[in-house]
Give the backbone structure.
Amino acid sequence: MSGVWDALTGLGDVLAQHVILAACAIGLGIAVALPLAVWASRSQAVSRGALGFASLVQTIPALALLALFFPILLSLRAVFGEGLPTLGFLPALLALSLYALLPILRNAVTAQANLDPGVIEAANGVGMSFWQRLRLVEAPLAAPYVMAGIRTAAVWTIGAATLSTTIGQPSLGDPIFAGLQTQNWSLVLAGCIASAGLAIVADALLGTIEAGFRRRDRRLWLGGAIAVAAGVAAAFVSQVDWSRDDGRETIVIGTKQFSEQLILGRLVGEQLEDAGYDVEYREGLGSAVVAQAVANGSIDIYFDYTGTIWANQMKRTDNPGRDAMYEAIVKWEREVQGTRVLGKLGFENAYAFAMREDRARELGIRSIEDLARAAPRLVAGGDPEWFERPEWFAVRDAYGLNFSNERNFSPTFMYNALRSGDADVISAYTSDGRIAADNLVILEDPREALPSYDTLIILSPERANDERLIAALRPLLGSIDVKAMREANFSVDRTDGNKKTPREAARWLAEEVGLE
Amino acid sequence: MAASLAFEGVTKRYDSTRALAGIDLAIEPGSFVALVGASGSGKSTLLKTINRLVEPTEGRVLLDGQDVAASDPTAMRRTTGYVFQRIGLFPHMSVAENIAIGPRLVGEKLGEDRIGELLSLVDLDPAMAGRLPEELSGGQQQRVGVARALAGNPSLLLMDEPFGALDPVTRDALGTRVRDLHEKLDLTTIMVTHDMAEALILADRVLVMDGGRIVADETPQALSRGKGGEVAQELVAVPRHQAEKLKGLEG
């Protein structure tokens, strides 16, 4: 439990960012929902349309809604110019505001629809104008119901805001996602406790305001409102950078959602800090999101793999061989994306089939050819992308693979499935530390159906010719062998007492490969 | 000064139905007019064309010679008393705040004395000023409703089934009170009711409506002598029959 406590005490910064994000999203939700509700009370068509739209939004999973704002904002750059951020705060704010809309709107519309018609007739009869009726009669009578809607919206938004980590906005999702990827359950638990605690506190304070409105008790609602405002203000103040501008340039490093990427991010980050840069991290980004983000300059540096770019972004399904593929990717990144492939880090993180050694021996399997013969009796596990990827189709067709069942797992759980026997063979990654640790064998690929996955450093168009930055990064090229990477990965992924954070692993790796 | 009213060809259509079929009518200052008829006869609609809660499809309504369609409806309503069956006190405002609402809309503050005076006019204890509507009985609430209607010193008082939801004793007492105030404050009063007995007792001119038209326009005395035609006499027959039965019980 002390691990959870330690993790909790380190969450101050993401908690503040979480509060700011949720407060802004709810604020924007209120700012949109209330005028819409007033309009809806005057027009049946608007009422139906607005509530229908808000309900529709609500059916989209929050994770998908957050992800959708990336392409939406990207296309809006045509209107608002290249400065429009497509990752981080803005898309998270917009998606969460849309999510907050429904409960506020529905309660406000219902409250207005349920107002005593006699009261409305009286308001008109005594000669109130539109605004007088709204201010003196409708708003005070609807306030408790609207407040109840805001309360619901706040609890939803605080929960859903944890997902904004996936689009590069720091939140209490950071410890949850990082913990899930590295099997650090203390971190996951700390993130959940903080997020749930925040929701409970917000619910209680907003509930106080609601009760104040209901009982027409000014002291009660004013007290609640001041407490809410103080909490949000404290979060803002904590995020103000009081230090004077130190003239250091800031480099933003983006990483995907697994340990290796987190370690590489920290490794490069520390190198750059030593070289006099300030570094920000956008960790846990989706694979497609991170590639687009570097192309449009939302982040400066990220790491990708030749086979991933080849299949996912270039949509190629052929396999021209390792060197030809690399050359084609460098050219494509330069000409199509405007980005610069600085070079290879030195190790591959390729897809391969892995089995438990005892199981492979028992079935007499050493290569994918052997596997194909036993496949109808075996269950295959893959990460969520694997069974949709061209590599899978290529290797399946090359060897005629036909498993009795194909199951998807998150990368971490994939290895657990192999250990527990829920899967007989998995799509492993060659740099994965668990290959050695779990005593796994990589099956040979005699027909060379699986493509290469060299790890690349890629720079955004703005940084493509930044000589100072490139000079700082150059020592990393070719410096990391797969054995060292495996060991670093395992030190983060292991679940016993010797677990390292990505940053600790990065420091170990730097020393191991002689960078410091 | 009591207001004068005139209706010229006032017609109101809702989609396929015609609620008012070309009403022509003049009302003298200081009259107490009752609009009587069955549900759907158009009496409420006609009343609401005066303070523009209903806009006529055709024709016009003149208040003191001015077309109400040319007036600012909110300004005009603030100087016209309006009392209706659902009462419509604002539940989040005290009795005093309810009464003072009309003047407040134009930035005037109604003094404690004036509120006390208005409460006395409708036979309520001025000490009730601080209470909330939910603490009052139905009859007390409608008295506050009348006080609210009088707060802006109106020359015209419009009442739509004002006593419909009250118990008979309260109804009688408040009706009598309003008739006195009509005299005392020099008002022109239009009252919609479906109760012919109430109309005969309180008004000095009774208009009977049927199917969007005025089918009888008589004094209470003429109606009780059998004038006004079939529809009017059917309505008069009800209280007359009740009165005869009561007489029979006594005898």
Summary: Chain B touches chain A at residues 51, 53, 73-80, 82, 84, 86-92, 101-102, 105, 148 (CB under 8 Å).
